[in-house]
Amino acid sequence: MKIGFIGLGNVGGKLSGSLLRNGVELSVHDLDGALVARAVDAGASAGGSAAALMRECDAVITCLPSPAASDAVMQEMLPEVRDGKIWMEMSTTDEAEVKRLGAMVIAAGGAAVDCPVSGGCHRADTGNISIFAGCSRDTFERILPLLTIMGRRVLHTGDLGSASILKVITNYLATANLVSCAEALTVAKGAGMDLATAYEAIRISSGTSFVHETESQVILNGSRDISFTMDLVAKDIGLFQAVADRAQVPLQLNPLLIDIFNDGIERFGPRELSPNIIKRLEEATGLDVRAPGFPAEMVDDEPEERGAEVIVRR
């Protein structure tokens, strides 16, 4: 298959890099010409436009920052959709929106998949990230070889839109974990604990989590660099709230998280790194929640390996 890839930012650049590293014929497009040039240097071809990619490729992957961006790209691509074409939406997006756009693709004879990733940019860089895929089983089996290049664990979640629901659920949980880790580390500092010891105590206990084992480290380093920003967190928990509202589930914690991140954005700016939500507590207490010996950024030390489908227990 010849693959098109649109959106070469923090996540898209890494996912497309995995495809190139493993010999996939790839054509790319991004509004940032420097990102396209970097991908071309790595072996991709420049696609020129979203419409050209859909016209010339068997499948087109989009990895974009917002539902509005995905809609704009789809409007360009839609006239070029034909029988056999596949649209793979790897952005974190709204379930209702991916269904709306996917229905247009399907009506034109193509197939549509929402296949967002989860597990951190450091794992996207090595092809070891997890991928959810919402689509028909036949379409899933067509794209599974591609997904197992970009991800270590691939889960078929059901119909189109199901992957996007699960993605925003997992991002909500990650956000709740981040805020709780920020509070825990600040309390440890205020109580006079050694922060390296506090980190290890949490890590080996029932209080640990993926977020603690990754984001707490860059918090303590002081870089707070997890390649994710506050505006993206706000988008994701807003999408989770929309799912809850449609399902008529009254939430208590997520509205509070929305308020916390809106306050963080107001104070520090939308492009502030998301772990710096701890600065709200540092400023309120005068504490400096940093410790020596922690890395400035996370690096995946799991060897790259071809992925596989995760089988759901029944």
Numbering strands along the chain, what is their spatial order in the largest sheet?
Answer: 3-2-1-4-5-6
User: What is the number of E strands?
Assistant: 10
Order of helices and strands: EHEHEHEHEHEEHEHEHHHHHHE
* Strand portion: 5-15%
* Count of helix runs: 13
Unreliable segments of 5+ consecutive residues:
none
- Termini gap: 33 Å
Average pLDDT taken over every residue: 97
- Work out the helicity level: 40-55%
Return Rg in Å: 20 Å
Structural class: alpha/beta
Describe the sheet with the most strands. 6 strands, parallel
Overall, the morphology is: globular
Features:
13 helices, 314 residues, single chain, 4-stranded mixed beta sheet, globular
State the gist of this model.
The protein is 50% helix and 13% strand.
